[in-house]
Specification:
single chain; alpha/beta; Rossmann fold; seven-stranded mixed beta sheet; binds adenosine-5'-triphosphate; binds magnesium ion
Length: 283
């Protein structure tokens, strides 16, 4: 009998876009903390920052040094306008993150800076929405998961992310406008991914409720999130915790974080990471 080839000889990364058509709900923070939870669980994770604000890049401790001129995801997408440079060209922009924790080496970042805005004006070029997918082709196969942090709009930068992704996770808070943004994100995926983005297999795997405050108003909105998205809503809910915002903006890993409620925050993301692994398992 012939020996079977090693099942894991070539890993294929699973790509997940995190999105909502509403700003400030915690897309970037959730991307960074899920990357952390997955790396802690032994997975190799690439974070792609598709927001010109560069918030997930900053939260992961990446800093732009004009003397070194680190490449960003904008350059990989731009390079891809030339078909000779297209396939796999994103590899040149993968970099270490800036954390010092024990699992930091399992996370890499394709960072973003403001010039990523310039890619928007190229949206009309034929096939433009496929540029990220092509730039990643073969480049990300050493990772288990690729988390793509989207900007709050549903226009070209988010569409690049959705065209490149296998799965989508919506991040929301318990607010009417955020829920409306989540519904618009869901509708874009369900109605347009197959036709406009050449990605009929894209599926929403989860809805993360973030920044939850236990008030009457937020409890009502939480109930409507469950009514609308049903079993897609993940546990646990992430509470609004002031010190988490401090950890995020100070670019601190949860292993190094010493602020208020640190163990509660660590436990929350460990559980959220377990839900992620259950709902989006590797093949
Ligand atoms: N659970 C939380 N508790 C407290 N603060 C939080 C929580 N989640 C995120 N934040 C903070 O809220 C702010 C907005 O979060 P974040 O930048 O992740 O949102 P976003 O959806 O990515 O925003 P944008 O649409 O601008 O990209 C940040 O200061 C972040 O640290
Ligand atoms: Mg963000």
């Amino acid at each position: 009998m012939m020996a079977r080839p090693a099942a894991d000889a070539r890993r294929i990364a699973r790509r997940i876009a995190l999105l909502n058509n509403k700003g400030g709900v915690g897309k970037s923070g959730t991307t960074a903390r899920l990357a952390e939870a997955l790396a802690k669980a032994g997975k190799r994770v690439l974070v792609i920052d598709m927001d010109p604000q560069g918030n997930s890049s900053g939260m992961l401790g990446w800093r732009y040094d004009p003397k070194v001129k680190q490449p960003t995801i904008s350059q990989a997408i731009k390079a891809n306008t030339d078909p000779n440079e297209a396939l796999g060209c994103a590899r040149q922009v993968f970099q270490p993150i800036g954390w010092n924790c024990s699992y930091a080496e399992r996370i890499q970042i394709a960072p973003a800076r403001l010039p990523l805005e310039n890619r928007m004006s190229e949206a009309g070029i034929g096939g433009a929405w496929l540029r990220l997918r092509q730039a990643l082709e073969g480049a990300d196969s050493d990772f288990d998961y690729v988390l793509i942090d989207c900007p709050p709009s549903l226009l070209h930068l988010t569409q690049l992310a959705l065209a490149a992704s296998d799965d989508a996770v919506i991040v929301t808070d318990a607010d009417v406008y955020a829920i409306e943004g989540a519904i618009r994100a869901r509708d874009l995926i369900e109605k347009k991914a197959g036709t406009h983005l050449s990605n009929p297999g894209l599926q929403i795997r989860g809805v993360i409720l973030n920044k939850f405050q236990d008030t009457v108003r937020q409890r009502e909105q939480r109930d409507s999130i469950h009514d609308i998205f049903g079993p897609l809503v993940w546990t646990p809910t992430v509470k609004y915790i002031e010190s988490l915002a401090t950890a995020n903006t100070n670019s601190v890993s949860l292993e190094e974080f010493k602020g208020d409620r640190a163990s509660e925050i660590r436990a929350t993301y460990e559980l959220l990471g377990q839900t992620f692994l259950k709902e989006i398992p590797l093949p």
